[in-house]
Amino acid sequence: MSLAPRAVLVHRRTEYEELLARHGTHGQAAFFLAARGRSADEVRERHDRARRALAAVAAAVPLAWRQTRVERADLDRFLFGPEDVVVVVGQDGLVANTAKYLAGQPVVGVDADPGRNPGVLVRHRPADARRLLPHAAGPGAAADELTMVAAATDDGQRLLALNEIYVGPPGHQTARYTLDAAGGDDPGPEPQASSGVLAGTGTGATGWLRSLWQQRSSTLALPGPAEPRLAWFVREAWPSPTTGTRRVEGLLGPGQDLRLTVESDRLVAFGDGVESDALDLTWGQTVRLSVADTRLRLVT
Fold this sequence. Notes:
By secondary structure, this protein is α+β, with helices and mostly antiparallel strands. It is built from six helices and 16 strands. Strands 1, 2, 3, 4, 5, 6, 8, 9, 13 and 16 form a ten-stranded mixed β-sheet that branches. A six-stranded antiparallel β-sheet has the order 12-11-10-7-14-15, covered by helices on one side. Strand 5 and strand 6 form a beta hairpin. The two termini are 29 Å apart.
């Protein structure tokens, strides 16, 4: 007998909850904010909106379904099942934080605070959940299949991200590596010294990736969110007698990858800005960046 769908409600601690965890009481938090020219009432109102949105989505889950909740900090320890319908209640970034732990489950993005988020990934309102959840669990549910980026090391470590993956120093030092690419018109490997390399998707092209693209006045055609292509950029490449700046940007399609062989004591690779979940890379290791086999199914 097949299991009934399970609604997994993903959320994160609000700023107000973090303030209470740090200061202990509302009064102490209010005093802390007032000393910095901010109002505790504003923070509390956003907290209340977020909690009302989460409660509304929970109440919309069909009675025959199972449901559970998972906080962002616990995502790396949560086991998603194939029958899950994942409902992300919060900000666009929370969808990206969740995507790396999924394997094709449908995702419904619910904006917990309309007007404050761009709504690129959290496209729906809490009131839409009652209609969307049965639709998401049904066959042929309409969804955008969003491209993801993968990092794989030569010792078997793997990392997925929805927006971008950064490879570089963990602090403000210089990253040293040899950059190479497979497929396409590749001019060959090049030793480089820079502040890191970024490879991202069409979804990421609305954020960090786009800022690099604009900063260098690049003529690359950035990919769309569903296109199986990546764009990559080297940050602040430094020319020297032993390091070059010939390879500083490019595109990767299916079957192509960007390879970095580490020539520093330590580099890291992390996705979507989550530095706490990073791959550690040491001298001589190689990491490959490519279009991921996994895609995010974002219900429309």
